[in-house]
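Final report, closing paragraph on structural work. Over the funding period we assembled a curated collection of sequence-structure pairs, and we close with a single example.
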Amino acid sequence: MHNHHIDHNEFNKKFKIGIILNSIFILIEIFFGLSYNSLALVADAGHNLSDVLGLIIAWTANYLVLKKPTKNFTYGFKRTTILAAMLNSLLLIFALGMILWEAIERLNSAKEVNGNIVMIVAGIGVIINGITARLFLHGKEKDLNIKGAYLHMLADAIISAGVVVSGFVIFLTKLYWLDSVISIIIVCVIFWGTWKLLRDSTILSLDGVPANINYEKVKNYFLEFSEIQSIHHLHIWALSTSETALTVHVVPKSKFNSAELFKKINEGLLNKFQINHTTIQIENENCEGNC
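Its predicted structure, as stored:
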């Protein structure tokens, strides 16, 4: 069963706009960060690089939904988004380590920073991240992949607002060491999200149950139907960062309308758990889980 409530072509265009806007902002932050000696801006540029990578991953997943499977790749190429997420998280953790090292070194030197420039550039970031988040507002409740992009960009707008505050304080107080402190805080915030991305993508690559799905709740959901006596061989895994598959063997209590029951089951799996690819096999009681 598939979710047809999202216009993937429409969101492909929105991903393009978001990637272009954030790429331009990265260049702005790097230029002014190096020109005016602000590590906080450089650190935030690293953060926005992760945004672009995240948007590319989400865009790829959204694009691959439209690609038809082949004889050799019967599920299509959706799983490449999971592998890309793992690679991006590892590269970003390495970059964060480099930024953290430089921030600690600068705490001792306390080089002069133009707080006014930091404030203005980060303010541009609030606007760009806010606009990008707004692009995905319409689909965030219908597609987990799009919701992830929305939440990521919304969080970035908030972080950029934090950099604006630090720039204002530096402008007033001339406490230049605040730039390094803010950059360290930003690194810690990014690392937390990046670590979760690495953990979740690793789980998905090993065919683990996606983090947003509770296995026991899905199991109990099947047993809520009066027509079902028991289930076994329940497997839940991710086809991509936005699509989840399920297979299960069902033992019925008595005769029933299988088409009607499966329709109700599939609707519930999609609406309650965002599981959109299902395979349900009917078995008799004598199988005892070995069929």
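The longest helix spans residues 80-109. Strands lie at 228-238, 244-252, 277-282. We thank the funder for supporting this effort.
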